[in-house]
Every structure is written in structure tokens, then in C-alpha cells.
Amino acid sequence: MIKAVLIIAILGLMTLNSLGQGVPAPEENIPFLVTFGNEAPKKYGDDDHCQTFFFSIPKTYTKPFYIRIFDPETGGENDERVKNFNTTTLFSFYGGKGCISEQDAREVDPMGQFKSGNLLYKKEFGSDEKYDNKWTTIGPFNAQQGEYAEQYFGYIFKLICEGTSGDDGNLYRYFLSTSPNENIPVPGGNAFTFEYTFRLHKSHKQISHIYPFVDENVISVKQHNFDGDDDGELKLFSVRSKDVELALSGDNESAESVYNINSREKGTSLDIQIIKSAKDSPNNNLVFYVTNQYGQAMPFYTIPIGGIPKYKGNLIVKPTK
Ligand SMILES: [Ca+2]
Ligand SMILES: [Ca+2]
Ligand SMILES: [Ca+2]
Ligand SMILES: [Ca+2]
């Protein structure tokens, strides 16, 4: 069974390799990650002023890599201004032992030892034209500086963005690149998080996707979202299901719903779609995470493991045992 899951996962990584490692990825159709300054109220759509992303580098990649951040500062273009821009955010990047194996690193809230591992880089950004609306590069780094975790498909690194002052929203994106000057994907690389705080598109025509990965131990999943502003519908698709309605939260509210996993869905990703309402609505930020039956947070990969799930109806699939 584990072997089958791994084979599916590797095939998925290979076929989707060409899609690159933008965070958010084009397949997610999410315009920006968001982190607010620590003086912003939760109702702006960020419950903890902190976002953690992990990057995985496969064993097969032995050259240096870079992390690129688009618009790391909070000012000028892209960002959400509340009165004057007065926000600083701290980006810190970790590898080494404990980077992901430390339980606190995999929680949905920043707590305890969530900054586990070796600190490889940190920099605080305020409002600065020099970094506005453009890419900034950190690195080079080597895979061996990460923490190897087979379960997460390679050497793992962790990038934390924290709102250290102010009340504005920092909107930004990441790219895992082989180049310091442009966005060139690391072959077989990926990125994932256990809690996602992001901006939805303004336009009503948009559908955003997130892809939680269901490993062989998962029996049921519970999706949790905060501050969805009742902005449309939330639906789940998988190899077995389509159009399953999930609860989407209102303004400054939380919502959750449970979905039971079928054996056919193990080793695949789910496709949770946020289908925007009929009206355009700017500045909708929300928080999303998914837990398994033990209450453990599950990873969402920007490049879905096993590929984007395609509904296969009532097709009989041979058990993999
Ligand atoms: Ca900006
Ligand atoms: Ca402000
Ligand atoms: Ca920004
Ligand atoms: Ca919101």
C-alpha cells in the first residue's frame, strides 16, 4: 500500500513537474499569500499574523537553489493599506534537524518550538520602494542544509512570515527556483503548508483550489476556514466525489465540515474549490486548514500529490494490497 502511494506520488510529481513551484501555484488560482501586521484585528482575515511554508527538494537535485519572494515589503503596489502603511514583516528561513520533524512546526498556530531547525536567513521588511512589486532572492542554499523526510518527498526547508508590527496586510508570493534572477522550477520540487492564509480574487468569475493530500492513515478529514465573508460556495471534488458542499464561513466567523475518506481516495489529493459569489468583492482574505480524524493538520501541496484529482464516477478500482 505504502509503495503504491509512493509510486502514485512520484508519477504525479513527474507529470506536474513542468508546472513549476510558484506559491501559490497557477493550479490553485490564488492571487497572493497574506500576512497582517500583529496589530491588525482578526476580522481582516488573518487569525495569527504568521504563515509557514515548507519547501521540498528531491534527493536527485544536487545543485544550489534559491527562494524568491515577490513584494516582501508592505507598501506601494499589491498590499492592503489600513490608514498609513506602518507594517513590518519578518521572513525567516530554516533547514536542519527538527525543521519539520518538530511537532510544533506542523501545527496550525505559531506555538512553542515552531521556529525549529537551523536558521539560514532572516530579514525584516517595512514599506520600501526598493522591494515593491518585484522579486527579491534569498540563497543560494543546498539540499543537504534541509531536513530529510521521506514522508514529505525530500529535503525540507521552512519559510516563516510574521507580522512584527503595524496593521496592514502584506501580500506576497514565493517561487522555489534554480536561478537567482528568474523563476525556473527545481525539478521535482514542491511546497506545502498546514495552514494557508490567502487573498481571493476580486472578480466573481474565479474559482480557487486547494489540494490537501490524503495519506494511507486518513479516515476522515475536517476542513476549517475563517473569515470567508460568505463569498460564494465551498465544494469538494476527488476521485470518488464531486460537488460535495462544505461550509464556508461568514465575516469574522469560523466554519468547518467533515468528509469521510474512501479507500480509493488514499494516496490522492482532494480538490477543495472556493467558488466565488456572483458579485465582485475586493480584499477578501481567509484562513484555511484541514485536519484528519486525530485532529492533526494535513499538508496542502501547491503541486497536488498524485495530480489534480479527476472524478472517476463509480469505476471499480482494484485494491492496491
Ligand atoms: Ca508592495
Ligand atoms: Ca496601517
Ligand atoms: Ca507585499
Ligand atoms: Ca475575509
Sum this structure up briefly.
The chain has one helix and 22 strands. The chain is mainly β. Keywords: Signal.
Describe the fold and architecture.
4% of the residues lie in helices and 38% in strands. The chain has one domain. The strands form four sheets. Strands 1, 2, 4, 7, 10, 12, 15, 18 and 21 form a nine-stranded antiparallel β-sheet that branches. Strands 3, 5, 6, 8, 9, 11 and 22 form a seven-stranded antiparallel β-sheet that branches. The chain is mainly beta and 321 residues long. The site of one calcium ion (CA) has 9 residues, from loops.
How would you summarize the topology of this molecule?
Blueprint: H1 2-15, E1 22-23, E2 32-36, E3 50-57, E4 65-70, E5 88-95, E6 118-125, E7 135-141, E8 147-149, E9 154-165, E10 169-177, E11 190-193, E12 196-199, E13 207-210, E14 213-214, E15 220-226, E16 233-237, E17 244-246, E18 254-260, E19 268-269, E20 271-275, E21 285-292, E22 300-301
Antiparallel strand pairs: 1-10, 2-10, 2-12, 3-9, 3-11, 4-7, 4-10, 5-6, 5-9, 8-9, 11-22, 12-21, 13-20, 14-19, 15-18, 15-21, 16-17, 16-20
The chain binds calcium ion (4 copies).
Residues 82-86, 166-168 line the site of one calcium ion.
Helix/strand order, N-terminal first: HEEEEEEEEEEEEEEEEEEEEEE
Principal-axis shape: globular
Which structural category do the helix and sheet elements fall into? mainly beta
DSSP, total strands: 22
Number of helices: 1
Q: Helicity range of the residues? A: under 10%
- The number of distinct structural domains comes to 1
In this entry the ligands are: calcium ion
Percent in strands: 35-45%
Name the average pLDDT: 92
Radius of gyration: 19 Å
Largest β-sheet summary: 9 strands, antiparallel
